[in-house]
Amino acid sequence: MKRALLFSGGIALALTSAWAMAQSSPESLLPPGFERPKAGGAKPAAPAVPSAGSTPVVQPIPGSGGGSASPAARPATLPSGHKIPTLKELESMSPDQLDELLGLKPKFDMPSAARRSMKQVGILAEDEGGMPAWSLGKQSAQLVKATLDGNKGRMVSRWGHILLRRALASRLDAPAGMNPADFAASRAALLVRMGEGEAARQLVQDVDAGNYTPALTQAAMDAYAFTADITGICPVTSVIGGGRKDADWRVLRAICASFQGDGAAGLSQLDQLVGEGGWPQIDILLAQRYAGAAGKARRTVKIEWDGVKDMNPWRYALTLAVGLEPPEGLTGNLPLRYDFVAATAPMAKLELRAKGADRAAGAGILSSAAMVDLYSQIYAADEINGPWADTAQTLRKAYVAEKASDRHAAIVALWDGGADPQARYSRQVLTAYAAARLEPSGDYAKDAPDLIASMLAAGLDQNALRWGQLADIGSLAWGQLALAAPNRTAPVNGSALDSFYGIDASDGYRKSRFLLAGLAGLGRVEPDAARDFAAKLGISLERQTKWTRLIQRAADVNNRQLVILLAGLGMQGDGWDKMTSVNLYHIVSALNRVGLSAEARMIAAEAVARG
Predict the structure, then answer these.
(1) Phi/psi of residue 572, each to 5°?
(2) What is the pTM of this model?
(3) Quick one: how many helices (H) and strands (E) in the chain?
(4) What is the predicted pLDDT for the residue at 268?
(5) Cβ neighbours of 257 (radius 10 Å)
């Protein structure tokens, strides 16, 4: 209260001074003859003598337009341009908002020596696995923006997802003519659409808040919502202040005020937002509960879900952030992004994370090691019972059972526990290293294709190749290994392709189409055999589109980064039935030509396994 009164007194003083300045016209300090001459070269008039009783003003306020306005005509505003607030409004303001009101807020909240360069923004340097920083520097900004903003984020290929994530997270120069902050915003927004909230958050944190653009501000908000890191946006709200007026921003500023030491002001601002129609009541209550945990102004807020019929990103994030679990009735048919959020949220219950992991691993968000670590935590938690605890127990058997047959049985049981093909493939990611520990045996020949697919899901190509002795030419196991082998020299002939076609039970011979596309893209099939097999399947791998010409051109100039971005566009879809053999051929070919042969091989083998 004292602080509010103190600032209100200062505001009144500033306002009184402004009125005093407006009481008379400013007196010129220039000597006679230096005023602006009149038109026509007439001699300047002598300076006017101030009227009796007037108080000369030494210098007019910049931009005030002189002192001709009367006190009644001059609006009651502050240096920041805001209207004079009421005492009640002052009492609810945080110190950050008061600074903004008085025009004391700088654009940067750090000294110039501590500010980071905008030349290269990203997480991964080239020597850390990222792409060369110059990769897109000379590319068309319009083309790069189109490849980023036009990608919806859902890719059919786990390995394609992993490759695109690495490219987006790389430390890169912005394309010529593109604002580096907006370039970072487009990359972060795509990462969020892909379900990569952690990578998106790290990317936006690589830019100082003073350099944020509206696009980067929105991308940052989405990244923090995805990771349920509500206060992560606070440094940005502190710098941008009232530059945004939407409901999301106002709620976040109020929360940040609470966590920046003024809990009473933050909660008061949230109270004012109740009933304004910006956020539904349940969301405001969650925000109040979150903000109420900060500082001395603690408040207990009861959350009741009666009448709530849907879920939104901020509602889900705040629910996790306050330590609650979203009601089961609201999470039954949510988009996949919510599973991805749960899978990577450290504050979520392990069972909820495991449910999300059955989607996230197959998509490429979680590695095999991350999956094993998650189930290890479930296994060690004595309070967890039921299906997830049983799955953790089965996983332990898959790794440490004494008999190989028991380990094999546990691996198959884990696969069969997947609720659908996507979950089953996630379980194959989970069992990759367990499958690699099995010695090749004819006893498991029936499951050899799935064992190989499991190992290749984690990139264990050398372990998978040990099963080559049991893979008959033309079998599904053989097809995967023909694509995954790093040093295959003998080209595949027509007889082997016909054998594969003969046992292909996939819709429209999709696996055969993908096998041909992958082999042709890697240059591992006899040209005549490829031509005849393509005719048999009724496809033409040489068909050209605008996209195929662009990715070919990018490969011609050996631009890895652009090839990856264009490959990401060509891999969009929620299942391999959305992938065409033409797109797969050009993706595998372009990646192979620019030195990304390992990724090309894994994508091609995955296509055959999951097609």
Answers:
(1) -70, 145
(2) 0.82
(3) 30, 2
(4) 83
(5) 30
